[in-house]
Amino acid sequence: APDIPVIDQAYSKLSNSITVEWRAVPGATNYMLTAQDGDSFVETIVKNSPGTVTGLKPATLYRITVRSISSGGKSQPSPFRKVKTVLAAPTLSVRSPSCDSIAVSWKAVPMAAGFSVSLMRSDGLGRVLKQNTTNTSLIFTNLDPGTLYTIKAYAWNANGMPGDDFIYNQRTSPNAPVDVKVAFNSGALRAVVSWMPTEGALTYSVTVSSGLLKLRCNTSSASCMVPSLQCSSEYDVSVTAHNDAGSSEPTDAVSLKTIPCAPVNISIEEDEPGHLLVSWSSVSLGHYYVVFVKSDDGLEVHCNTSHTQCHFQSDCGFTYFISVFAYNKAGQSPLGDVLNYTTAPCCPGDFRAVFVSSDTVRVAWAPVRGADAYETRALGGSGVLLCRDTATACTLSALQCSTRYNITVHSFSEARGSSAACAPRCVATAPCSPEIKNISKEGLSVIRVQWQANNEEAMYIVTARGEAGLWHCTSTKNSCSLMDLPCGSAFSVSAIARSAAGQSLPSYSIPLETAPCCPSDLILTQVTQSVTNISWSVGRGAHTYVTTLESPKGQAKCHTLQTYCLLGCITCGTNYTVSLKAISETGLTSSCTYQGYSSSACCPSGVKLYRLSNNGIRVFWRASDETINYNADLHGSKGNFSCTPSSGLSHCDITRIPCGDVYTVLVAPMTNKGPKLTFCPKKIYS
């Protein structure tokens, strides 16, 4: 076994350990340190000197021995040394009751005669503060706010031996922030509170209070946003700084007045047409008000006032959107209720009344703003006519003729009802239709028409309408005459009344027929000595004709549908008067007279032929009247020959007649004009 070590010294610097120093023993590889307290002991193996025994109790007397160890074994314990461990360190409780002080307290340490506490800034700046005391607490004052300090404390015994140190870092509480500012966001009803950062503050709390209402905001920066503020409210804003040591005093309260609330109880009245009165309730913290009135055409006006009402001009047929804002230094109130007010629609303009018939008028007008429907009212005659429609036109029918109506057009809207009093328009209907009472013939081609006059200040126009054309007559009374109506024509006669108001409907038509026209051409042709053919042109309007030849010796008459007639029993050499009656289908008759007619002279009698020579012939006859001149005609295949006797003679000679032929001999009275007579008896001569 190795030699026994010799302890040079043993001492305690920590309350739980004793350090031992000895001289090295040759051949020893390890050393065993033993600290014994009564029956208990603590052993520690170390490599060399010095060595420390730990796990000991503070302020306790121990017997310390050392044994050397080698491969051969352990030596015997060295002579012991008595060493007492130092006092334990006091356990500190530290706080910062204010921003410039730190309070330190601890529990009593056994066998401690006193305590030493020192304090210094952890950053090494400044001086060290040290206090010795036999108490278990003390306070350091006049410190820097929000600064981290290092505190060291130990206890000492009656011999003045210090015990273990207790080191603690403590920060003083921060000072109250300065330069607090409040920025209010009126649109979002929130405030941003800012301040100058204070030394040592880790966090800040902002308190916004109004009465019992408190809002808080915590932050680690130098500003904080406080949301959900109420309008028309006044708040006290304070800021408190915090760190692990505590809190600062709150800053002096900064007053914050929020924007006013939106005005309520807004009412709109149209005290008179064209004027709107907007009123509302007063708002707390509202210094003045602005009313915005925007019409539906985009035009906007506003009114500034410190009162609770405003006047505006308005136009008919507009919808106005009205909003009221309150203002103070904080800004504009939120948007409240937006009211709309629709004024009564305008009276229709560009009024036009056009008669589409005598008893129907079409009323049209230009559309007006704000009108959903229109009502047309016609007052006059025996009552009131109404017409309601959404269109800008209305047709009033069944109007009384020759009547004045006051027509008024009102516009309506669902929002406001009827338009204001609109000016009427006076319209007069056309005259009433006249009623034809009588049509009479006053003379040749003159027809008098009478009617019942039932209008005032009307001009009556009578029209005869037919295939021959139109004939008119006018009068302001109850009759007029149609002149120069053509014969043989059928007419429809009607009358209208005309005035400044218009023209009536035509009366019921009365048929009118004029007497047929006399034929313009009449030709008489004697067919035989006792038969005459009469022909004539067509007389317009005539259906049948009656022709008459009349002389003192008698009368010949013919009634026919044709335009010619054969009249017999005509006496030769007689002057006749010629008349013709044209008769219409309805029996109207026109008596027509023509130039007189003379029948041809009577044919001679006793015609005899005598041969004068081989180529001559003498013709004899007996004249019916010595004053009549006759002519003898000889007709054959080899030629025609004639002779005329001297006046007063009743024979004549025809010479140079070719022989060997058969001739027809005709002796007839001579005529002044027209063809020769061929109806007298003929003789054959061979």
From TrEMBL:
<dbReference type="InterPro" id="IPR036116">
    <property type="entry name" value="FN3_sf"/>
</dbReference>
<dbReference type="Pfam" id="PF00041">
    <property type="entry name" value="fn3"/>
</dbReference>
<dbReference type="InterPro" id="IPR013783">
    <property type="entry name" value="Ig-like_fold"/>
</dbReference>
<feature type="domain" description="Fibronectin type-III">
    <location>
        <begin position="1"/>
        <end position="88"/>
    </location>
</feature>
<feature type="domain" description="Fibronectin type-III">
    <location>
        <begin position="89"/>
        <end position="175"/>
    </location>
</feature>
<feature type="domain" description="Fibronectin type-III">
    <location>
        <begin position="430"/>
        <end position="517"/>
    </location>
</feature>
<feature type="domain" description="Fibronectin type-III">
    <location>
        <begin position="262"/>
        <end position="346"/>
    </location>
</feature>
<protein>
    <submittedName>
        <fullName>FNDC7 protein</fullName>
    </submittedName>
</protein>
<dbReference type="InterPro" id="IPR003961">
    <property type="entry name" value="FN3_dom"/>
</dbReference>
<feature type="domain" description="Fibronectin type-III">
    <location>
        <begin position="176"/>
        <end position="261"/>
    </location>
</feature>
